[in-house]
């Protein structure tokens, strides 16, 4: 009887162990719900205009750079209208962009855009042109004062003494002021020594080429066509200056400086009707701005070693370096970088 009871007790204990094993939950669930991935970063890109070749390049390169990093981009063009740019920026803000990147038409009026974006909790990056009198979060551009210095260095080497014409950009564009500062910083000493005389100095309203053409015509008329050099704020402006010079029978006789390395400008350099341009690798600018905007959207810390005063604050800035280009080095710069092809340049 004692042996039978012990055997029964062992059977009961074994059954309890089996029952316990059947009821035990697995440590890792057999099926686990897939975690939802966060929505992609959305960047707003508010542009002034697409009328000039370089801005079409900026748009396409920036869009590609953003999308290559798995983010989305919404792009608007204000067509040189500050009120329209404010309205379009409001639309981008309402669309829920994470960061707003802006190329301001009017550096002062764009401050309203920054204020509206910040009110919505959206940070703002100034692309190539600096927004004035606003708490801008980041400025990404080329060193515009250096661009002006390169222009003036090149022209003073060609014409160390003589009568100069300066055709600036739009007065509403703060970059035009930085560019002009760079030019006149270089010209100051030869002007003080009486070696150089600036006989015409005017802004080009809205950066419009036809206004630059009018400026060049007026400069020629005011000085009886007696001028020795022209520094123009960009290549489109330089092209119109060259047109006026050609009509006066002076094409190729008076050195003209520009910037942006537009295809027509590079062709003029080959032909000898434009002395130089300033090359700014826009692909680097677009890629850098896109990467920084996405980093800001993700809450990552951006460290910059430069600051630019915009009239209100010292704006954290990333300034890329430009390159002076003339007939001697365009093959090793513009063509080597595939900015333009050899076939395009030497058509």
TrEMBL record:
Domain of life where this protein originates: Bacteria
Signal sequence, renumbered to the chain: 1-19
Location in the cell: Cell envelope
Domain Periplasmic binding protein: from-to ranges: 43-300
GO terms for cellular component: outer membrane-bounded periplasmic space
Gene3D superfamilies, alphabetized: 3.40.50.2300
Keywords (A to Z) from UniProt: Signal
Name of one Pfam family that matches: Peripla_BP_4
Main subcellular localisation: other
GO molecular function, one term: carbohydrate binding
Keyword hit for Iron: no
TM segment ranges: none
Name of protein: Ribose ABC transporter substrate-binding protein
Species: Rossellomorea marisflavi
């Amino acid at each position: 009887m004692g042996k039978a009871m012990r055997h029964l007790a062992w059977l009961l204990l074994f059954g309890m162990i089996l029952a316990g094993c059947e009821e035990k939950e697995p440590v890792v669930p057999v099926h686990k719900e897939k975690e939802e991935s966060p929505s992609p970063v959305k960047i707003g890109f508010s542009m002034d205009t697409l009328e000039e070749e370089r801005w079409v390049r900026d748009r396409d390169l920036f869009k590609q750079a953003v999308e290559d990093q798995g983010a989305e981009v919404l792009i608007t063009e204000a067509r040189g209208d500050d009120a329209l740019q404010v309205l379009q920026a409001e639309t981008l803000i309402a669309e829920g962009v994470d960061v707003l990147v802006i190329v301001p038409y009017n550096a002062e009026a764009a401050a309203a855009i920054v204020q509206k974006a910040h009110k919505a909790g959206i940070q703002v990056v100034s692309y190539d042109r600096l927004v004035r009198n606003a708490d801008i979060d980041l400025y990404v551009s080329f060193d515009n004062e250096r661009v002006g210095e390169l222009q003036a260095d090149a022209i003073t080497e060609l014409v160390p003494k003589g009568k100069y014409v300066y055709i600036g950009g739009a007065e509403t564009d703060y970059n035009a002021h930085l560019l002009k500062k760079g030019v006149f910083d270089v010209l100051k000493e030869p002007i003080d020594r009486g070696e150089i005389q600036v006989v015409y100095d005017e802004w080009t309203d809205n950066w419009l080429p036809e206004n630059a053409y009018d400026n060049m015509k007026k400069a020629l008329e005011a000085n009886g066509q007696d001028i020795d050099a022209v520094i123009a704020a960009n290549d489109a402006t330089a092209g119109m200056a060259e047109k006026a010079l050609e009509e006066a029978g002076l094409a190729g006789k008076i050195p003209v400086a520009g910037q942006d390395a537009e295809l027509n400008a590079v062709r003029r350099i080959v032909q000898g009707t434009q002395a130089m341009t300033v090359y700014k690798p826009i692909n680097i600018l677009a890629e850098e701005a896109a990467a920084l905007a996405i980093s800001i959207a993700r809450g990552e810390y951006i460290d910059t070693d430069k600051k630019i005063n915009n009239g209100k604050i010292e704006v954290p800035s990333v300034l890329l370096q430009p390159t002076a280009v003339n007939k001697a080095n365009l093959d090793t710069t513009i063509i080597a970088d595939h900015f333009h092809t050899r076939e395009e340049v030497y058509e």
